[in-house]
Amino acid sequence: MNDANPYVDYARMDALHALQLPVTDSPFEMQFILLSQVKELLFRMVHLELEQARTRICEDRPEAACRALSRAVRHQRTLIGCWESMNAMPVDEFLPFRDTLGEASGTQSYMYRLLEFTLGNRVSAMVRPTDFTRFPQLSAELQRPSLYDEVLRHLARTGLPVPEHILTRDVTGPYVPDDAVEDVWATVYRSPDKYRAAYDLAEQLLEVAYQFSRWRATHLLVVERMIGGKRGLGGTDGAAWLRKINEHRFFAELWTARSAL
Ligand code: HEM
């Protein structure tokens, strides 16, 4: 008898549902694993769209890049919504199995790091050397200009005065905000009709950065709710460390240019 199930077979649902292996009897541990996996997959969805956006920018097609960025934003909103399900877990149900997680920490998520690297926050120290070997996508990403690097190169090709040292910067390191780039964005914002495509691109990039910061801020709230001031499993001082991370903004000049308007 043919036991094919086209739905299960197409997307390997049987393999998917075999990937949760709780080590305690807590039903909440199963939910914690499921949510962590859902979030990983959504990180990947966001990454796929950022790749699309970068490709379109390299082709000098800012409108097409905007469409990819707006799709990324939808996935980011879904990601943020997942925290609601995490909050359904009572703290006294979380703590008993937290001890079984050992040193497992979100800092070790290579898909999250790939997202940060793709956007331009390239802090290599956040990746363990063995992870660079195990996940070669991370080292490969550092050899390419980030999405923001490509955006600035695109602006330069349209005639905007992006400085040479930005266009030729060492892309393997984190992007350092620059006053002249802030001036470029301020110019765009002062004349939206003249720079319509750049203006729309700026607003879509800002939305991606805004949603990223919302994800971080909500994560911090969930962390305070679950573990208060306890140390993180990754070895940091927990909420205090995350609070510092929350100060970072992607595409920093898009935020600071507001002061100049
Ligand atoms: C109750 C649930 C959670 C708690 C208490 C928690 C706690 C923490 C803490 C304390 C840190 C700081 C680093 C450390 O010392 O470990 C951290 C980092 C991180 N967590 Fe969570 N976390 C939770 C759920 C999640 C989930 C579901 C995800 C998504 C898969 C996630 C992703 C991350 C990421 C990506 C970082 C690194 C952030 C960065 O490097 O900027 N966390 N988490």
SSE diagram, text form:
Layout: H1 6-11, H2 13-16, H3 27-58, H4 62-87, H5 91-98, H6 110-119, H7 129-134, H8 136-142, H9 147-157, H10 164-167, H11 179-190, H12 196-227, H13 239-245, H14 252-260
Bound molecules: protoporphyrin IX containing FE.
Protoporphyrin IX containing FE binds next to α3, α12 and α13.
Organism: Streptosporangium sibiricum
Cofactor: heme
GO molecular function, one term: L-tryptophan 2,3-dioxygenase activity
Give a short overview:
It is an enzyme of class 1 (oxidoreductase). This protein is an all-alpha fold. The protein has 14 helices and no strands.
Q: Could you name the CATH class? A: Mainly Alpha
Bound molecules: protoporphyrin IX containing FE
Q: Kindly provide the radius of gyration, computed on alpha-carbon positions and rounded to a whole number of angstroms.
A: 21 Å
> What composes the largest sheet?
none
Please state the structural category.
mainly alpha
Overall 3D shape: globular
Head-to-tail CA distance between termini: 71 Å
The appropriate CATH architecture is: Up-down Bundle
Taking pLDDT < 50 over at least 5 consecutive residues as the criterion, the unreliable ranges are none
* Helical residues, percent: 55-70%
Mean pLDDT: 97
The run of helices and strands is: HHHHHHHHHHHHHH
Number of helical stretches of at least 4 residues: 14
CATH overall fold name: Methane Monooxygenase Hydroxylase, Chain G, domain 1
How many domain units?
A: 1
Count of distinct strands: 0
Strand content: under 5%
